Amino acid sequence: MGCGDLSCYGGTSVPTPNMDRLAKEGTRFTQFYVASPVCSPSRTGFLTGMYPARWRITSYLQSRAGNRACGQNDFLDPKAPSIARVLKEAGYATAHIGKWHMGGGRDVTNAPPFRDYGFDEHAGTYESPEPDSSITATNWIWSPEDKIKRWDRSGYFVDKTLDFLQRHKGQPCYVNLWPDDVHAPWIPEGAANKRGSPDFSHAQLKCVIKEYDRQVGRLLDGLRELGLEKNTLLVFTSDNGPLPTFDDARTVGMRGSKISLYEGGTCMPLIVRWPGRTPAGRVDEKTVMNAVDFFPMFCRVAGVDLPKGIKFDGEDLIEAFFGKSIVRENAMLWEYGRNNTSFDYPKVVRDRSPNVAIREGKWKLLVNADASGAELYDLKMDREEKTNLAEKNPIVAKRLSEKALAWRKSLP
Q1: pLDDT digits (tens, 9 = 90+) for 235-257
Q2: Is the overall model pTM greater than 0.85, yes or no?
Q3: Structural contact between residues 314 and 49, judged by C-beta atoms closer than 8 angstroms
Q4: Which CATH class is domain 3-322?
């Protein structure tokens, strides 16, 4: 999903009243970033609190041969830190429900089970070590033979989540509810689509988003009916930008898309709601936050110490959830595109970014790993990344380029 898929972020394609309800009842952020512009490494950043390449996850996980061509592992090392494991050890009941994509699927049959990452229960899609049989009749995203049809999948995941919370009332819970219906192929009810064939029709997408929004409403209503509404921190976001963007409509004008380090590929919607704790209707346009920050932030909320001996990349910006705009201490860094064959850049030339990026304050610099093609943008004045200021600000460009490339060289 991109910001433009939600009405509350300025999207105009389809009304999203329940996602908008989240924003009205919680706080909406406009400068939230993911750790990668594609699914597997982005999700690794969420789970570990570390930049994903540190764990040799650099692109979407696929076949063994495809992973070798990308120079990456077949699955996330279970020795990596996991927010679920830390919370489980602190007494939380933990569940992963929805898309995983950090190991398993295709011909990767030896991925570690969910329990190795700290999950008590799971209902995973086909790209997981233990796919849910109701949604994986075949080893693919969906098939007509699935017991739970593609268009009913988000409802199935919401039902699973509410059931888990019902069965663990009185115990603290942590749940990854990670639906995948906004990932192509878009299959709304009644769509005529053969197994596995992608459908990039905007009309199909609108139907899918409408149904997904309805399920967000069911989740909110379910939390209230369970009496858990006021004791639940709900975090809503996306793992990477949209593709296609339909002329940047899905990125609200920001340049880039999925598999691009421009803003449209990495800057995502973020809404947090905790009634009585997160300010209702607030829009935070100042705090610059990253998905790797969630690990220390969730530990802080839970009153749990961070694991010892690990250098996390995230920062504890939890006060931003409670109404205070926070200035980030450290730069944010990204890399995507380690070769020109396995890393499928966007077909839209304008959205093809250099393969290393850094953001520090208002400045964002993109540069290739061989130090060529530096681009410098002032995001305070130019969120759409139209004007390259590298030549006008050579000192800033040189400093950020050296910092970004030194980081890139430090990675496995």
Answers
A1: 999 999 999 999 999 999 999 99
A2: yes
A3: yes
A4: alpha beta
- Least Cα distance to 188 among 157, 149, 219, 217 occurs for 149
- Which secondary structure element, helix H or strand E, spans residue 356, and what is its range? strand 356-360
**Tokens (6 digits) for 403:** 């910092």
In the chain the first and final C-alpha atoms are separated, in Å, by 29
Question: Which residues contact residue 91 at a Cβ distance below 8 angstroms, ignoring those fewer than 6 apart?
Answer: 171, 172
Confidence of residue 201 (pLDDT cuts 50, 70, 90): confident
What is the fold, at CATH topology level, of the domain defined by 332-410?
A: Arylsulfatase, C-terminal domain (3.30.1120)
Place of tokens 């029709």: 201
What tokens were used for 393?
């600000």
Domain boundaries, the chain: 3-322, 332-410
Going through 164-203 in order, the beta strands assigned E by DSSP cover 173-178
H, E, C per residue of 241-278: CCCCCCCCHHHCCCCCCCCCCCHHHHEEEEEEECCCCC
Q: What percent of the chain has pLDDT over 90?
A: 92
* Average pLDDT for 384-397: 98
Q: Angle at CA 83, nearest 5°, toward 159 and 176?
A: 15
For range 80-102, the mean pLDDT? 98
Q: What are phi and psi of 349, to 5 degrees?
A: -55, -40
Q: Which residues contact 117 (CB under 8 A, 6 or more apart)?
A: 47, 76, 78, 82, 84, 85, 96
